[in-house]
Amino acid sequence: AQTVTQSQPEMSVQEAETVTLSCTYDTSENNYYLFWYKQPPSRQMILVIRQEAYKQQNATENRFSVNFQKAAKSFSLKISDSQLGDTAMYFCALNAGNNRKLIWGLGTSLGVNP
Amino acid sequence: EAQVTQNPRYLITVTGKKLTVTCSQNMNHEYMSWYRQDPGLGLRQIYYSMNVEVTDKGDVPEGYKVSRKEKRNFPLILESPSPNQTSLYFCASSPTTSGVYKNIQYFGAGTRLSVL
């Protein structure tokens, strides 16, 4: 079975500082994708970053970067220079197999404090 | 603007009254899917469609129906809603052909449904 685990239900960070959100996953597939999605209070689900498993290089998108450790099945998200607008629920998700179903973690609620 | 559009955004209904939540995407995506989000359970897939006239069950299909008669539309039908279907529903779409956006799922704004 494929699983995604986010072990930090809540986190907080001061504005302008750096925070890392953890995610571990399990799959027997060789080819898969990992995602971080952001869900602000508006409830919209917004893609933050994507990592393809066959790529060794960690993905980056502006202030967002990942630490992808394939052997350890770990996929953490680092947010640099945190902004008030980063306050949201962050979900880690795994896409493996042919039906393209996303397997979701339960989320980490991140609060950015001024 | 490329987007996935769900309607309605909010809906309150009563047990047994049939309803349809519409989903439309303008990105020519082959793949579409419905998820429900519940506290403590996360997001779970209800149904998905790989292309026109091709649909299949996800993890929690009971009490729901879908159809995919056109590429852009993927409505979710609740024939006889019950209180345990009170939830936040998301429609998503994704391209399946090769390219930089392959496998990325784009989500609608969500539909909050309450069944009394």
Question: Can you give a write-up of this model?
Answer:
The complex is a heterodimer of chains A (114) and B (116). Chain A is mainly β. In chain A, the strands form 3 sheets. In chain A, strands 2, 5, 6, 10, 11 and 12 form a 6-stranded mixed β-sheet that branches. In chain A, strands 3-9-8-7 form a 4-stranded antiparallel β-sheet, with no helix packed on it. Chain A is globular. The termini of chain A are far apart. The model of chain A has no long low-confidence stretch (mean pLDDT 94). Chain B has 116 residues and is mainly β. Chain B is built from no helices and 11 strands. In chain B, strands 2, 4, 5, 6, 9, 10 and 11 form a 7-stranded mixed β-sheet that branches. The model of chain B has no long low-confidence stretch (mean pLDDT 93). At the A-B interface, strand 5 and strand 6 of A face strand 4, strand 5, strand 9 and strand 10 of B.
